[in-house]
Amino acid sequence: MLFVGAGDTGTRAARYLAEDGHEMTALRRRDLAVPLPLRRVQADITDRASLDRVTLPAAEVVVFCVAAGRADDATYRALYVDGLANVLGALGSTGPMPRRVVFVSSTAVYGQCEAELVDEDAPAEPHRYNGRRMLEAEAVAASFGVVEPVAARLGGNYGPGRTRLVERVRAGLEPVGGGQRDPHTNRIHVDDAARALAFLATCADPPSVVNVVDDHPARRSEVVRWLAARLGVAVPVPVPVPVPVPVPEPDADDLAGAAALASPERTDDKCVSNARLRALGFDLVYPTYREGYASILDR
């Protein structure tokens, strides 16, 4: 089995599979060690020539689990769309195509904005470039003739080493109320995410799309208030922003700013369902943010 990326989440998943007796190889761009018994191949997936210079192992299953170092459209296209195509092209040039590719996608592919319950059959119409590129990349494996392409649409990862929200609440930097937008958030603890990827890599007859989130989509304010109570800190209320004095002839920059505020990119609000993942027989260790954040705070 080949893991492409093998950062924190991918390495966790690979170790679960190795413990079950699967032979694991991690393809990484940087020259970093991977924990035993994983083997390592170093190459840059955005550079097909780099892949052609190394020997990739024949793999029936590929798990594509990479993380973008930069947040822009060009990087997402190069890493997710072109990167996956480069890997599959290199594998196909030296041996048979993998039977299954588990592509780690994102719930950002859903653009719903009315707090709808969203399952895998809901329209995927992303507003942002990241969701658009993920959706484009989801189709790459099938275009290469992969028999079992699986798009694992992950919610926001949190867990050990991913405690930014905890630290912001502790520092009083997460105000709630005061007319602020309060969308639902869809999370998955990093360990449950890794276990789900290992599960999807090995389960029989996986569906082509699976949402990987916990049981409880929660409004941002709910999570912030719960964390503040556990941390023993106050939840700040936003300071009202003074209304600017209107000007009769706004210039181009003013108009662009107003358009950005009205952009649909700011309106995503959906409740992503994990019913399909559950129906496959997968159990969560951290079914809601409460169990997940408690495991971090109680350390």
From TrEMBL:
Pfam families associated with the record: Epimerase
SUPFAM superfamilies: NAD(P)-binding Rossmann-fold domains
Domain NAD-dependent epimerase/dehydratase: residue ranges: 6-212
Xref: InterPro entries: Epimerase_deHydtase, NAD(P)-bd_dom_sf, NAD(P)-dependent_oxidoreduct
Gene Ontology annotations for the cellular component aspect, listed alphabetically: cytoplasm
Gene Ontology terms for molecular function: aldehyde dehydrogenase (NAD+) activity
Protein name: Unannotated protein
Source organism per UniProt: freshwater metagenome
